[in-house]
Amino acid sequence: MRVMYVTGGHDETYVRFGEREEELQGVAVARVGRYERDHMCDAPANSSVGWRDPGYVHDALLTGLKKGHKYYYRVGNDKGGWSATHSFVSRNSDSDETIAFLFGDMGTAVPYNTYLRTQDESISTIKWILRDLEDLGEKPAFVSHIGDISYARGYSWLWDHFFTQIEPVAARVAYHVCIGNHEYNWPLQPFKPDWAGYGKDGGGECGVPYSLRFNMPGNSSEPTGTGAPPTKNLYYSFDMGSVHFVYISTETNFLPGSNQYKFLKHDLESVDRNKTPFVVVQGHRPMYTTSHENRDAALRGKMLEHLEPLLVNNNVTLALWGHVHRYERFCPLNNFTCGGNVGQKAGDGKSYTVHIVIGMAGQDWQPIWEPRPNHLEDPIFPQPKRSLYRGGEFGYTRLVATKQKFVLSYVGNHDGEVHDMVEILASGEVVSGNGDCSINDAISDANSKPGSQVVESTLSWYVKGGSVLLLGAFMGYVFGYVTSRKKSEAPSNWTPVKTEES
């Protein structure tokens, strides 16, 4: 398990950990790193307006953990003091159960007016995930945040707000990420073909805070072509229970011949389906969407041309995407054609992958799908048959899986209830429909045997049964952030009114 945190100094710090809160006998030394203003690639990140000293990032790897055990830990040193005590449940590699909370485009919220619109709905997303974690009790789980992480976009203090906001979650379960346009894109980025539509959405950060503040598995990196450190955490994979998870970058080169393409091809071809019968691929920009994303049309075309064959020919169960700030679930797809099941015989041209867009965790610019009074000039985007469910509700998704069954639920922020579900059996059969269940109901359902429940309608959901879903936390992955920050009061003339985003 990896623990990361930020302090104001570069003195050596430690993580003390153990199975009893009063006996933290294990010790891990933290590696220390930081980035500088001259590492930023453009304004506002390298300007006096956007720059703020990020402090020092401490990174400690906890080893020798027992499987599926609860551990307590705190960080610091005797000179500077110690943090509060936190806890996590270690990975249990003997279990085939998997629990995860997945979303994109969350951001953070600040209680004052600033240069950018911030994401108030991110507060509710964290609140409901915390509710689910409390219900889980002492079971391992992880978070997957697939791009557009903090929406700092060059205003570095927003990163501090983000980590403070996620700390209650990220201090107890692993927090996985992949890169999005708002972490990376800038005018001189190395891979920028005319068709890609990459702009300057990163605010001059060019992936530097993202690369230093997170430490994902693997060693993927790409040079920035500037004095900045290489961009890291681009593509990687890991097994968690019965699911093989793959993360990719839609912001760097994914074409045949690139390092990323070679990684993805080899990784998908090497999956042990006896161990992990389900495979989930995640990236930021979607391969399929019915929203108005004309700027990315050519990029989606390249993804469909080069990446979709890797998905369908290697029986990928599910592809998750962000970028569009809505929830949208598609039928099992292969080149815009719906199929009944996923993962048919590999390479026979009849394989299909379920695609779901999950960029609804906080950012409040939303595509318009239905007519609005007095806004007749706004474009409307009809829902084709391949789009089975489109939701305008902010929220997140919840994954529960065993070797028999894979269940993904869409939880809405306004009520914390399930608004959509898709269930995929190990046979490849897909069942979908609206449902309403708690995290423990979902766990029970995932552990029930296929066919053991009566389905009254194809639009109703398996919300009964008994299963204990859980795939352990993972050794060596980013686990949590315990932030140390200066507290300052906002000037009294600042107001909590958000400005319009350009």
Automatic annotation (TrEMBL):
Residues 103-327 form the Calcineurin-like phosphoesterase domain. It is found in: Secreted. It is an enzyme of class 3 (hydrolase). Its EC number is 3.1.3.2. GO terms for cellular component: extracellular region. InterPro entries: Calcineurin-like_PHP, Metallo-depent_PP-like, MPP_PAP, PAPs_C, PAPs_N, Purple_acid_Pase-like_N. Residues 353-420 form the Purple acid phosphatase C-terminal domain. GO terms for molecular function: acid phosphatase activity; metal ion binding. It holds the Pfam family Pur_ac_phosph_N. The keyword Secreted applies. CDD domains: MPP_PAPs (cd00839). It catalyses: a phosphate monoester + H2O = an alcohol + phosphate. Homodimer. This is Purple acid phosphatase. It comes from Cajanus cajan (Pigeon pea). The lineage of its organism: Eukaryota, Viridiplantae, Streptophyta, Embryophyta, Tracheophyta.
